[in-house]
Design brief:
By secondary structure, the protein is an alpha/beta fold. Strand 7, helix 7 and strand 8 form a beta-alpha-beta unit. The longest helix is centred in the middle third of the chain and has 15 residues. It is built from 18 helices and twelve strands. It has a ten-stranded mixed sheet, sandwiched between helices. Strands 10-11 form a two-stranded antiparallel ribbon.
Length: 480
């Protein structure tokens, strides 16, 4: 999708140099402290995980270094200088390329919204000698679902058997991570959930579905520098950072400390589709959930001689339409999951304990589940705990739905690809229990009237694997 017209304005003033100062682990306390500075202003971010002797291993030190490298992006963005100085922290050439890409592509939305051009970014660091690389297949996502059976039913790439690996599953309480958890537990033994939050803080939208799973939860505390919470006061630039990349690195460290063999993400196919294209460059709100990030991060992990855990997304070759169909059958979770943006507000006093029924995420979740859940059951989901009602019953939300369907600017949110949303509208409108749903019928008529409306074959293709993935064969077979 092309970028909407933006008012040209002077680019904001940028800093001069962002520095990586140091990181220090304390195994007895189970903490990692990462220190950075930007033009003399110092920042510190602290992580807390399980204490113990595993901190004093080569793998833990390597994983802590990765957290240090990726977490810095949150502080760089305060002034976006053209130079990043890693001090004494050496990088291999592939690591340097990976880190620069993480900053440039992971901050694509931030740069777009702030009117910045970060293409002059230079990373200064000593050069480390790279070990002999271990070749791994790179998944190439298909840009648009097509009804070609060879593509739709592409086999998973060859991987070692997954059954005997103790997987750690980062868990956000939404439909993607719930589907991943329920699929992984059918194949692997000793599965644990992984949750990152501020120390002492808990989100009901995560805790309630986690309790339904009955699985143990491995926790990590993340304490950002309090200066970031005063961005306006200090005149910092602000915007979206590739937080899933940071969480991925923390999860690798947690996996090392708990002797887990793999970190299993829940990033699906459409996460690789850009939100928009601006001046010829893709801008993807979900970059650190994309296939490109997954492949690059896997290469970094595989190249480390310390022997770090495996990393892959269980849903890489699955569409949100497929996920929605799977989740619809997991009825135990229907009254506890909540993907509403307002359920994750940092300020607990402003955090909702129910669906708002109006945000972009509420609209998308309603749309992607409507083909597969009885209308009455889905309305009950949004009405639970005093919720704001089902979005599809609210005609005032028509502009939000049209944006999801490609008739407006796609929101900078973790939502599905346009064709997935169009397919969902057409399937939902065909349900007998949706007869008389005025907004849904109106949206379906608009989609059906488009020359690029998805065909029946294209919709069917979206309900099967699309493109390549790193999913192990035994897990892929569970979902075939």
């Amino acid at each position: 999708m092309s970028a909407p017209e933006v008012v040209e304005r002077a680019a904001p003033a940028r800093g001069q140099v962002f520095r990586y100062e140091s990181f220090a682990a304390d195994g007895e306390r189970g903490t990692l402290t990462c220190r950075y500075s930007l033009d003399g202003r110092e920042f510190a971010e602290r992580f807390s995980l399980s204490p113990g002797p595993r901190w004093d291993t080569a793998a833990a030190r390597a994983a802590a270094r990765l957290v240090f490298l990726l977490a810095g992006v949150s502080y760089y963005k305060t002034a976006a200088p053209p130079v990043i100085d890693l001090g004494t922290t050496a990088l291999t050439d592939p690591e340097r390329a990976f880190l620069r890409d993480f900053y440039l592509r992971g901050l694509g939305e931030y740069a777009y919204k702030n009117g910045l051009d970060l293409s002059d970014l230079r990373i200064e660091a000593p050069t480390a000698i790279a070990p002999v690389p271990v070749p791994v297949p790179v998944p190439v996502p298909v840009p648009v679902p097509v009804p070609d059976s060879a593509t739709a039913h592409a086999p998973a790439s060859t991987n070692p058997i997954f059954r005997d690996i103790r997987p750690l599953v980062p868990f956000g309480g939404g439909i993607d991570s719930i589907v991943t958890v329920e699929g992984v537990r059918e194949v692997a033994a000793d599965v644990s959930l992984f949750v990152v939050s501020r120390p002492g803080d808990r989100f009901a939208a995560i805790e309630r579905p986690a309790a339904v799973s009955g699985l143990p939860v491995i926790r990590a505390g993340r304490e950002i520098d309090p200066q970031l919470l005063r961005s306006a006061e200090f005149g910092f630039l602000n915007g979206h950072v590739p937080v899933t990349g940071i969480i991925s690195a923390i999860a690798i460290l947690a996996a090392v400390l708990t002797d887990s063999g793999a970190v299993v993400m829940s990033n699906e196919w459409s996460a690789s589709v850009p939100t928009l294209v601006h001046r010829g460059e893709q801008v993807n709100h979900q970059y650190s959930k994309s296939a490109a990030f997954e492949a690059a991060f896997r290469d970094v992990l595989a190249a480390d001689a310390a022997g770090l855990p495996r990393y892959f997304s269980a849903l890489r070759d699955r569409t949100e339409l497929w996920v929605g169909a799977k989740f619809a059958a997991l009825t135990d979770y229907h009254q506890t999951f909540r993907s509403c943006n307002k359920a994750f507000t940092l300020d607990a006093n402003r955090r909702l304990d129910h669906w708002c029924g109006k945000c972009d995420k509420c609209c998308f979740i309603d749309l992607i589940l409507a083909p597969f859940m009885p209308a009455r059951a889905l309305r009950a989901v949004f009405a639970a705990d005093g919720g704001g009602g089902e979005p599809l019953d609210n005609p005032e939300l028509a502009p939000k739905f049209r944006a999801l369907l490609g008739s407006g600017t796609k929101p900078f949110e973790c939502v599905g690809e346009v064709n997935e949303c169009r397919a969902a509208v057409m399937l939902a409108a065909g349900r007998p229990d949706r007869a008389g749903a005025a907004l849904l019928a109106e949206l379906a008529a608009e989609v059906s009237g488009r020359p690029d409306a998805p065909t029946d074959d294209e919709i069917e293709a979206m309900r099967h694997p699309i493109g390549a993935s790193f999913v192990p064969p035994d897990l892929a077979a569970q979902w075939s």
